[in-house]
Structure formats: C-alpha cells, structure tokens
Amino acid sequence: MGCGKQIPWCQDRSKKGEIELPLLYRRGSSSEAQICCLPARSRASTAVLNTATESNSCSRDQLIREAVLLTFCQPLPEQCRRLQDLSEKEWQKLLNWLDISGLALYFLDRMTELHLCDMLPPGVLARLQQNLRDNVERTRGMIAESIAIQQEFQKTGLGYATLKGFSFCPSSVPRAELRHQFDLDFLVAEQSASQARQILERKGYRLYAISGRSWEFKINETPGISVKDLYKDLPGRSVELHIEAKIPGRSSLLERLEMRDFHGIHMPVLSPVDLFLGQGLHVYKHVYSEFSRTAHLLEFRRHVLVRREDDAFWDELQSIARENPRASLGLGVVTLLITRVMGDFAPAALTHWTVDRLPSSARLWVELYGRRAVFQNFPGSKLYLLLQRELESVGVPAKRSLRQALLPSRLPPAVIRPTADETVAVRIRRYRMQLGVVFSRLRFHIVEGFRYTLESYRWRQSMNRFPQ
Question: Quick one: which of 43, 25, 22, 52 has its CA closest to 462?
C-alpha cells in the first residue's frame, strides 16, 4: 500500500550524546540481530544473548506490533515500513491488539501528528476515528463521575488523592481522551476508608472485592459487553480505593500532595516524584504478571522524556525511593524493557541506580522474554514466574507461591454479581459470561503451565551460562 507523503524513515535510532543502545538491538527482520555497544561485562555473555535471539524470534504479528510501537520514536525507525503493505486480515488482527494493548487512540493521534493517516486503509481509519469520538464522550462521563465523587469527599473533609488516570495528564498522557481508562482510582487514608466506602455506597456502588489494601466498587454492571462497546460511554462504572497505611519510618504520600485545577474543582494529586514512582511501580507490577498493556510502557517512557533534563527531579526521586525496597528493581526492569524494545530514552541520573544495579537474572529475563511480554496477546503467559523464582532466591518476596500461580485452587471470582431485580435474560447472560471466563482460565492454566515447564529448562541453561 503506497503512501502519498515522504516518510522520514531512519536507518538507526542511535544519536550522538545519547545513552548506549540496548544490549541486543534488532534491525530489519527478526533473523537479523547484532550485539551493539556491549559493556565489558556483557560482552562475556554474548553466547547467552545469542540464545536470547533464538528465544525472542518474533512472529509476523509481533513484528507488525513492534512497527506500531516504534512509530512513537523520533525519527521513525526503518521497521515502521512494515505498516505499508499489510493485508486486510492483518489490519483486523492489529486493530484487535491495539484495543487490548491500549494503544489504539495513541496510534491514531501519532499518525495524525506525522501526517501519515493516508497509510491507513479507509476502513481502519474510519474505525479508529469513531473510537476516538466515542472515547471523548466516555472520558467526559468519567470526568463528571470523578468530580461528583471528589465533591462528596471534599464536603466531608476526607483525606484523599486521585491516583493514575487523570493525574497522568499531561506528563504521561497529552490529552485525557486518548487514554482508555477502565476505572477511577483514589488513595485514601486508613482512618478515612470506611467513610469513603459509605460515600460510594450512597451513590449506588457495591463493594465487589478486597485485594490487600485495594477495595473495588462497581455500579450498573452489564453482562455481555462486546469489544465494539469498549470506547462507548456506558452506564457501568468502577472505582478503586487504595488504602494508605501508616508505616513506621516512612512518610505519608497524603502529606505531600499538590492541588491541580480539574474542570472546576481543585483535585489533589500525588507530588511529581510520588506520581512518577507510583506509575513506574504500577507498570512493573503488570510486567511482572500474566499480561501487561503496552500503553503503560509508552506512558512511562513519555513521562521520563518530559523529565529527562530535570536533574533536581531525579535526585529527589532517588532520595524518596530509598524508602521503598522495590523501587530500584521495579524502575530498573521497566526502564531496561522499554530500552530493549524502543531504544535509549532514560537519563543516566535514573539508570545508574536502577538499570545498572539490576540482578543478572532480571537482566537476562528482559533479554529473553521482554519482547514477548510487550507484544503478546491477552491473556498473556506465565513466563514471569521464571523471574519470580530467581528473585525469591535473592530475598524479593512473591505475592503468590509458584504452585499457587501454576495451579490455582479457586475458581475465578464473579465478573458480575446478581441484583435483586435481575431478569431471567440478564441472569442467563451473566451465567454464560462466567462460564466463558472459567473455561478460558482453565485453558490458559493448562497451556501456559505446559509452556512454562518447557521454558524452565531453557531458562536454567541460560542462567548457568550467564555471568553472575
């Protein structure tokens, strides 16, 4: 498929003055790879990284997804040419992944910015533009709901802060309507948790689940929502309360908030450093799980680039991060993974105490499985358990044991709960949805458990050859 504009393709993403390229940097097809800019310690592990090349060999679908992600680099890498000659079937598969990964509207905005929308087939462009129009309305609805909840919080003098979502604008998200946001998140003080719950329940929300210090509430749940309704402003809403406990020796996030003007109200958000650290650890939590949305990586990368030259910010971040034993590891894994896939972007002021201090097992996991984690299909894989097992041996605790993660002993929780006035038709749709979830999870555990077992042998061989 031709393109009516001159496309600024670039043969090499390396630029004078930038940090070194990732250890294994691909050019062209998946079979072409070279080891670039290896430090002395890494050159000793070239044989292991060659194994990584074999393990990381990508399908055409993954290479197409890589081309999409690389459109956010400047200048455009050569790999982006793959988008010029996709078949109709490939575009449809790509659209599905764009929806699931959270990149659909970011991709449309980027192609518009580059004046490359004529690369997209008319049907694909029309679909993305309709998604954007729908998400504009959806975002307006979520903003209105957020304001209504915050006004109730503020009337009662409740201590809270808005988390994630709208607080990411503009550091990570240029415009709120480009982000597909599933729920509203608030951080509340432990002594205010019961009061916040009462406010939500008075508005019609029901407490669905409690996971650690996170309480999930839902309202107007509707079974059988399809992908085509993903961007529409439906009546269903979800709110999560994250309870902040007082930890001896650690300062409170709620004690160092900043106020931001938000559509007519003053919205409390985390301080810039706390916002960045929380975002990075949230991305790490998802990378270190079965499935992560690629959009989270792109948002984090944008946040780093916005702060890249702010040395005072990085100094303060390092100081605050000392209070959190997971900070260096989490930020290091995420930063290395993005570098591995998109090229260098992070300043030395961040990498010297994060990426440079990663355990060898974490570095190897990123090299072997990082690309899979970024470009995989939902529901993901269990390959993160390989890293979990290694990190446990160096004192990093896991939320679930390896056995529980491989062979869960409980059925999935109810996706939608019954209501007092539920009709027979709604009950049937709800049961059908729940059965679908159960069988889908069963298949996932069988297939990915078997894949994990096979991959464990290769992982152990690689670890034995990798310099410790």
Answer: 52
- For residue 305, the tally of other CB atoms under 10 A from its CB is 15
- φ, ψ for residue 412, nearest 5 deg: -60, 145
Positions of CATH 3.30.460.40 in the chain? 138-270
**Helix or strand or coil: residue 249?**
coil
pLDDT digits 0-9 by tens, 1-25? 433 344 554 444 333 333 332 333 3
Buried-exposed string 41-53: b where 16+ CB fall within 10 A, e elsewhere = ebeebeebbebbb
For 172, the token pair is 């990570």
Rounded CA-CA distance 436/431 in Å is 9
Residue 292 contacts residue 333 (beta carbons within 8 Å): no
Please state whether the peptide bond connecting residue 359 to the residue before it is cis, i.e. omega within 30 degrees of 0. Answer: no
Q: Is 343 left (phi over 0), alpha (psi -120 to 50) or beta?
A: left
Class of domain 138-270: alpha beta
92-109: buried (b, 16+ CB within 10 Å) or exposed (e) per residue?
A: ebbbebbbbbbbbbbbbb
User: What pLDDT does 224 receive?
Assistant: 65
pLDDT at 236 over 70: yes
Q: Is the pLDDT of residue 208 over 80?
A: yes
Written as six digits, the tokens of 91 are: 């575009």
Report the 10 Å Cβ neighbour count for 463: 17
pTM to 2 decimal places: 0.86
Which DSSP string corresponds to 326-348?
THHHHHHHHHHHHHHHH-----H
Dump strand ranges (E) for 277-317.
none
Query: Which residues lie across from 70 on neighbouring strands?
Result: none
Given a contact cutoff of 8 angstroms between Cβ atoms, the answer to whether 331 and 280 are in contact is yes
